[in-house]
Q: What sequence folds into this?
């Protein structure tokens, strides 16, 4: 059994099977599960370790983060294989995700060496002003199953870089990647209590962490749970950071290069089985190119190879579990009931191994008030919305409760520039898929997608550190 890490010790309590969604007969391993009491021990350990880690020099933190980056990079094939088995994304995507995690740790190892403050002259004679940053404190991290090593990396790395200690609760569906990452950090020299891992359900471990005596919490997951974390954190006057999904539009204008438009839509909507908060599940297409676009993307979807994540020929892996598959199939039925036209796909598929396979779906004749155009499905289901022109496309794109990312495909610099400014999303792409971001650039959205400071890059310091202003009189 792979245990939880609390105060530098591996603790074996409970136990759950880690099941391969490409082959439900394949048990990847048995992973320990925690409870509220173990969360309390982890928080206490993190609290005790905080003064020492906060006071550690930059070379100490740099050594831990850079060693973690090196091992992740060296083991990317092995860890990618594990990730593909437990989450279901293709092997190529999984290896790429591990490599990205390595890049994140490498970036923040560099940030440790760039920690600095500011000095200024006071309005009072003989007085200096110094502005420095200190750790936020004990940080709770709750991460989702769709990026089981990259999202933990881009939360843990900046937390440690700025001197915080961490209690980490990964999604129960993907404990293997979380365990591997924490094991690497532990062996890289993170002192006891600096990084703590507690695996378990949201109603037990997650709730205990939300209610625990921590100083900050960063969460990626559903809007409903995000709202609960916000309420609990506000009541405790505790800082919080929320990433909660999206219903992202990809606008395709009449002048778009058709091949590029189809490639962007296919990548954003269907690759990674549509299980990305940045997925472009709304394809907003102007009428002059609409029919050609639909015909072209239908042909591409029909040719996609859906299968076992470890098969090198697979382009689309399985859905993560039965509950998610049931939800996806339910949305297909909802779309039909609402009057949308199912152009292709949507059905469950049988393969050589028992798994959660689904043919990517494409709806047309969708209006922006339908549930399949309003709610995040988190599966390989895309809705095409026909519009008259750019102005209507922009209005439809912005007509959503979410605001994570948006994209446009066009050869018009005028429209591209206007869309970049006028889109009500936190991230905008031009002639690129809506999914796919750089590890050193800020990540986050607006409206119901995000709350709090941005993640990733140097902007992460705004959440993981607090500002202190000192006045010093030399007389």
A:
């Amino acid at each position: 059994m792979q245990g939880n890490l609390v105060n530098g010790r591996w603790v074996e309590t409970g136990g759950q099977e880690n099941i391969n969604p490409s082959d439900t007969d394949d048990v990847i391993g048995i992973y320990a599960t925690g409870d509220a009491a173990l969360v309390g021990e982890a928080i206490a350990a993190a609290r005790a370790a905080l003064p020492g880690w906060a006071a550690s020099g930059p070379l100490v933190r740099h050594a831990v983060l850079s060693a973690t980056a090196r091992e992740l990079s060296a083991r990317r094939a092995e860890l990618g294989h594990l990730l593909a088995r437990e989450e279901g994304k293709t092997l190529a995507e999984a290896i790429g995700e591990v490599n990205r995690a390595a890049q994140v740790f490498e970036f923040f190892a560099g940030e440790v060496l760039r920690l600095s403050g500011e000095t200024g002259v006071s309005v009072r004679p003989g007085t200096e002003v110094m502005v420095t940053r200190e750790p936020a404190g004990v940080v709770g991290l709750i991460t989702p199953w769709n990026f089981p090593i990259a999202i933990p990396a881009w939360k843990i790395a900046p937390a440690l870089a700025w001197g915080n200690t961490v209690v980490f609760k990964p999604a129960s569906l993907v404990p293997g990647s979380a365990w591997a990452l924490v094991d690497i950090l532990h062996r890289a020299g993170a002192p006891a209590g600096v990084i703590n891992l507690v695996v378990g359900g949201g109603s037990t471990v997650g709730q205990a962490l939300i209610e625990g005596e921590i100083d900050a919490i960063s969460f990626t997951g559903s809007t409903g749970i995000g709202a609960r974390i916000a309420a609990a954190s506000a009541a405790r006057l505790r800082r919080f950071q929320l990433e909660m999904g999206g219903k992202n539009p990809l606008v395709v204008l009449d002048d778009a290069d058709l091949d590029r438009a189809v490639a962007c839509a296919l990548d954003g909507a269907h690759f990674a089985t549509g299980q990305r908060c940045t997925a472009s599940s709304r394809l907003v297409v102007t009428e002059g190119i609409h029919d050609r676009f639909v015909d072209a993307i239908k042909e591409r979807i029909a040719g996609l190879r859906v299968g076992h994540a470890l098969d090198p020929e697979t382009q689309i892996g399985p859905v993560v579990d039965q509950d998610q598959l049931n939800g996806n199939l339910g949305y297909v039925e909802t779309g039909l009931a609402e009057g949308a036209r199912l152009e292709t796909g949507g059905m469950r598929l049988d393969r050589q191994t028992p798994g959660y396979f689904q043919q990517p779906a494409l709806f047309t004749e969708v209006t922006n008030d339908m549930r399949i155009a309003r709610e995040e499905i988190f599966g390989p289901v895309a809705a095409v919305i026909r519009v008259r022109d750019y102005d209507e496309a922009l209005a439809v794109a912005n007509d959503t409760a979410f605001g994570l990312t948006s994209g446009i495909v066009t050869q018009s610099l005028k429209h591209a520039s206007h869309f970049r400014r006028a889109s009500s999303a936190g991230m905008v792409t031009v002639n690129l898929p809506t999914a796919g971001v750089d590890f050193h650039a800020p990540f986050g959205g607006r409206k119901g997608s995000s709350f709090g400071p941005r993640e990733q890059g140097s902007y992460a310091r705004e959440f993981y550190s607090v500002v202190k202003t000192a006045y010093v009189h030399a007389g």
Q: What stands out?
A: The chain has a mean pLDDT of 97. The longest strand covers residues 23-31. The chain has two domains: 4-244+449-473, 249-430. Residues 4-244+449-473 form a domain with the Aldehyde Dehydrogenase; Chain A, domain 1 fold (CATH 3.40.605.10).
